[in-house]
Specification:
Layout: H1 4-19, H2 41-47, E1 49-54, H3 60-70, E2 74-79, H4 85-97, E3 104-108, H5 109-116, H6 138-144, E4 145-146, E5 149-150, E6 153-154, E7 160-165, H7 166-171, H8 180-193, E8 200-201, H9 206-215, E9 221-224, E10 227-230, H10 235-249, E11 253-254, H11 261-269, E12 274-278, H12 282-288, E13 296-299, E14 317-320, H13 328-339, H14 341-349, H15 357-361, H16 363-366, H17 378-387, H18 399-404, H19 406-409, H20 420-437, E15 441-442
Parallel strand pairs: 1-2, 1-3, 8-11, 10-15
Antiparallel strand pairs: 3-14, 4-5, 6-14, 7-12, 7-13, 9-10
Helix pairs in contact: 1-4, 9-10, 13-14
């Protein structure tokens, strides 16, 4: 029988959903006939059945076709139930209703805690997932595991890199910054040379902010079951805030929202000269900023301390199996197939950025030349970043909700005299209050 706190926590998850809620592995695939662990995956594959997969990632289409070809008794139905928040709302509603949930769901790393805290996704360890601990890069693997439980398998990753417009930099004699202090100086030089040019754009984004805090060594979130800590006063967070405040005070960042038409235009004409973002960005350059082909290059992310190599993740998602899945063994078999072995390589070939070490370290991947970046072997920069992602980062079990109130708190620092530190404190206070209202033990 559930206690009062548990009922409140499970209720909170439904509230989160309605309020607001991107190679070859070391072991053999269970679906390839290897040791499948306690669950009999091979028998399920032979028997067959239907697997419903909720996902928006386009590379899964080819994976599903390959899976069905290899296992003709299995029918994979791919359903785009919406991206991000829309899917999480639908997924949580289906779980709460006790019907209509998929067998497999794509869940971004920052949102996974919402489903693990409610015990609504399977621990995949009994299915054999525990053998993949060394197969994935640090950031994604940490995001899907807790203690000895594995709540999903990583689909992709977003190790951060520094994209810069070489044409603009060369014209104004700007060297690629290796530290964030140098970055600020480059921003000043660029804007002074031409007031229409900005080092980057920023109107306030929760994902970008937490990624840079992560790289700076900040660890504002800690979760141990229902015990949660939110603290934006830590040294790493303050380091980020102090540096970014200089850019805002001196109006050195373009007041343009990412993914807007103005953003694409700025990237194309060079008025937005850099991006610090995940390694999945190249496809967006080639499709959305085609006219600037040859102008851009990739470099390691600037460091908070000179000589360091620490990076962070920005984006990325996993495949999880809801406890309400009808065909859990088949669901796990597809999840494993799509994220390891040939399935992972298929997705990388189609443009996904790998979370598997084998793909990241393959010669074919590392030697890939990007015509858009002047023939640069950009994957070498991305792979190095993946190896240096800072460890021990965690999100809130209600991060989707926390991110939804970012613009009402930290976002004020971009449109008013409010300082970033004050905005972060407001975000902390609101996140603490919400967590406490939902039955979490926050900051006690």
């Amino acid at each position: 029988m559930r206690n009062h706190t548990t009922r409140r926590l499970l209720g909170a998850l439904a509230v989160l959903a309605t309020l607001s809620l991107t190679a070859t592995a070391c072991g053999s695939d269970a679906s390839d006939g290897g040791d499948s662990g306690p669950k009999d995956i091979n028998a399920a594959l032979e028997k067959g059945g239907k697997v419903t997969v909720w996902a928006w990632e386009p590379t899964l289409k080819k994976v599903a076709e390959d899976f069905e070809k290899k296992y003709p008794n299995v029918d994979v139905e791919l359903v785009n139930a919406g991206t991000g928040d829309k899917q999480y709302t639908a997924l949580q509603n289906a779980i709460s209703a006790g019907s209509g949930a998929p067998d497999v769901a794509q869940v971004e790393y920052y949102a996974l805690g919402q489903f693990t805290i409610g015990k609504s996704v399977e621990d995949l360890s009994p299915y054999g997932a525990d053998r993949y601990g060394t197969s994935f890069t640090t950031g994604p693997w940490n995001a899907v595991t807790e203690d000895k439980s594995i709540y999903a398998l990583p689909m992709d990753s977003g190790p951060m890199a520094f994209f810069y417009n070489k044409k603009v930099f060369d014209k104004h004699g700007i060297k690629v910054p290796t530290t964030w202090d140098e970055y600020v100086e480059a921003a000043r030089t660029l804007h002074k040379a031409d007031p229409k040019l900005f080092i980057t754009n920023d109107t306030g984004d929760a994902g970008a902010t937490t990624s840079l805090i992560w790289q700076a060594g900040g660890r504002p979130y800690k979760t141990d079951g229902t015990k949660v800590t939110v603290n934006f006063a830590d040294e790493g967070t303050q380091k980020y805030a102090a540096t970014w405040q200089k850019l805002l005070d001196e109006k050195l960042v373009a007041p343009v929202s990412s993914w807007s038409d103005a953003w694409y235009k700025g990237l194309a004409d060079g008025s937005i000269a850099t991006l610090s973002i995940g390694a999945w960005m190249p496809a967006n350059f080639t499709s959305g900023v085609a006219s600037a082909s040859g102008d851009w290059r990739v470099a390691p992310l600037p460091q908070w301390t000179k000589g360091d190599k620490t990076t962070a993740e920005n984006g990325g998602s996993s495949l999880a199996v809801p406890k309400a899945a009808k065909n859990k063994e088949l669901a796990y078999a597809f999840t494993e197939f799509a994220t390891t072995g040939t399935g992972a390589t298929t997705r990388v070939t189609a443009g996904a950025f790998p979370a598997t070490r084998a793909d990241l370290e393959s010669k074919a991947f590392l030697d890939t030349e990007f015509p858009y970046f002047g023939g640069q072997q950009a994957n070498r920069v991305f792979a190095e970043s993946a190896r240096n992602v800072g460890a021990d980062w965690s999100y809130l079990p209600y991060q989707v909700y926390a991110n939804s109130i970012f613009n009402d708190t930290v976002g004020k620092a971009y449109v008013s005299p409010t300082k970033l530190t004050d905005g972060l404190k407001a975000w902390q206070d609101a996140s603490v209050k919400y967590g406490q209202d939902q039955g979490f033990d926050v900051n006690k």
